[in-house]
Amino acid sequence: MKRFLILAAGILLFSSHALAQQRVIDATDNTPVSAASIFDASGNMAGITGSDGTITGIPESAYPITIRCIGYEQLVIEQAEEKTWEMIPAAYELEEVVVVPAERNVLKQIFYVREYFSMCNSTDTTTFFIEHMADRFVAASKKAKFNGSSSLRILDSHQYSRYKIDGKDSLASSDESDFPSMLTILGDLNDKEIRAPQSFKEGESTVKLHEIPGICGMSVIQKQNDYTFTTIVDGLADEEEHKISPFALKVFGLGMEIYQLYCTQAYNINDEGVYLPCDLTEASFVMEANGTGKLLRKIFSSSSPVTIRSMVEMYIVDRDYLTKDEAKKQSKIKPSDVKFVIPSTVPPLNEATRKMVEMAKNKVGH
Predict the structure, then answer these.
(1) Core-most of 60, 158, 248, 326, by most CB within 10 Å?
(2) CB–CB of 53/24 below 8 Å?
(3) How far apart are CA 137 and CA 188, in angstroms?
(4) How confident is the model over 277-290, as pLDDT tens digits?
């Protein structure tokens, strides 16, 4: 009996070491980095940090891992040695204030979008990397009114995918996405005015963190450094048991129970502490779910649970100020000569994703 207890204790200790809890923090003020995405050595999403910056369940076999989060430089961790990982805030050049005529009160934003999508069960994985160009039209100020849709509109896409199913490993590339984009499912970016807490303007404290609690966690987290004001919204903080099962996904055979869902938006900092869509520089959605839909089971030829993770990064490429008539006209006609433009602020792809894209392109002769 004693030998059995010793053996059991050893197994538990080994397991807790292999799947230890890690914490991601800001290197400048030690505040938690929420909604950061972790990618394993194969390029699959391995998890998302919670509102407290923690993540559990990354096995040693996943290393080296890559951590990405809007507003921070990409971080690569070679080995599972440290329990706390520090991310360095990205430095941005402050943009000049643009004076816009009153009649040009609709803002057109053009985005370069990167979408990562991973599905896996106990034996198989599928990995998608999709690039989009997108735009949206929003009121340029609090007083301006625009009756058109402010949702992101996808203009063009390139998809790269890797399937490791039933012992087979295959690559594919396409100018169309096989799945509905998470951009059309997860929700819209905020297009309303956001005010920084008064405490951010007071005193000389380097820690500028404001949290608004919800029913099941922090509903909103606001942070500020020398370059950006960032707001992180937990889309499930007020949902019962912190999870939802969107009906729209069931229609596509992609039924899933989402238990992590964050939207992060980063703005150029200003002295007034008032942030509008014109101040937006970057944004992201991150999502983690258990998949139960028929299409998912068909893909994997299995009834075992499917873990689904997605990250969508959105980077401003260009802005233009239009009259209402110009905006209505342009929003109804999708341009045919879309060019992919990657801003200099976009971090490089993790090595595994870069290789997947390169091999997929070579396979189809792009």
Answers:
(1) 158
(2) yes
(3) 12
(4) 999 999 999 999 99
Nearest to 221 by CA among 26, 20, 22, 21: 26
Helix intervals (H) in the chain: 2-18, 247-251, 294-300, 324-332, 351-364
- Residue 143, Cβ density class (10 Å: 0-12 exposed, 13-18 middle, ≥19 buried): exposed
Q: Is the CA virtual torsion 176, 182, 184, 190 positive or negative?
A: negative
Q: Are 153 and 181 in contact (CB under 8 A)?
A: no
If one compares 320 and 98, the residue with the highest pLDDT of the two is 320
Tokens matching residue 220: 């909103």
Contacts of 350 (CB under 8 A, 6+ apart): 39, 43, 66, 68, 74, 76
Token reading at 254: 């992609």
∠ CA 317-323-328, nearest 5°, is: 80
* 5 CB neighbour count, 10 Å cutoff: 9
Helix (H) or strand (E) run with residue 281 in it: strand 280-291
Tens of pLDDT, residues 41-93: 999 999 999 999 999 889 889 999 999 999 999 999 998 888 899 999 988 77
pTM > 0.70: yes
Q: How far apart are CA 260 and CA 270, in angstroms?
A: 31
CB 245, CB 256: distance < 8 Å: yes
Q: What tokens were used for 53? A: 């910056």
Where does 19-50 have alpha helices with state H? Answer: none
Residue carrying structure tokens 């599972």: 80
d(CA 160, CA 175): 9
278: its two tokens: 């014109």
Instruction: Please state, in angstroms and rounded to a whole number, the distance separating the CA atoms of residues 71 and 92.
Output: 9
What's the rounded Cα separation, in Å, for the pair 41 and 105? 46
Q: Phi and psi for 62 in degrees, rounded to 5?
A: -80, -15
